Amino acid sequence: MSDLPNKRPTLADGTAFADYTSSIQGLIETGKDFHRRGWSLGTSSNYSVVVDRDPTRLLLTGSGYDKGRLQADHFVLIDGEGEALPGSKNKPSAETLLHVVLARSAGAGSILHTHSVQGTVLSEAFLPEGKLVISGYEMLKGLQGITTHDCSVEIEIFPNTQDIAALAKDVEARLTDPIKPLKHGFLIAGHGLYTWGADLASARRHIEVLEFLFKIVTQKRLLNF
Fold first, then answer.
1. Is 184 left (phi over 0), alpha (psi -120 to 50) or beta?
2. What does the alpha-carbon distance between residue 30 and residue 116 come to, in Å, rounded to a whole number?
3. Given 132, 144, 170, 174, which residue has the most CB atoms within 10 angstroms?
4. Average pLDDT over residues 176-200
């Protein structure tokens, strides 16, 4: 579902959103699916698709909308600084800068953020370790670049903060770490999961894989093994 049109959005009259019909529809369907699964209840979560690279432009869910009931006019176009383009009527999410740094430094074509019960609880439980380590499951092969279940994936956990600009800098520093860069996704403590992919379909797959694995870890802890 990657669509990167050549022409730049001009939003003086709002009609340019018609250029992004397929991306908007894809994000609407994503919201309905994630709401049904309990991953994006109420107005929680935010989703984006990169619609241009030069200059950077992202189509992002507007702030305050129920993700299970998204409509075509519930989106906002943002630039590479996380600011709404002139003519966009909606307010970007407070976490917009996280989408920007993932598009820029991870090369993401789509970024998805969920608030599942499992992700929220595990992000608090493992915050002292700073990461959640998951090993040995076939489902891991659904993550980009992994070809065997015989591996371990570390999902880094960042403390929750209202200083999103500082958090975005921390995330970007981890993404560009020359030795062990951040991959696959990260958790914000007591908050939820961020993951990304080359396009919306890939990002959705990563959400499904990680949310499944979070549920496995939670069930194992409940059963004490």
1. left
2. 14
3. 132
4. 96
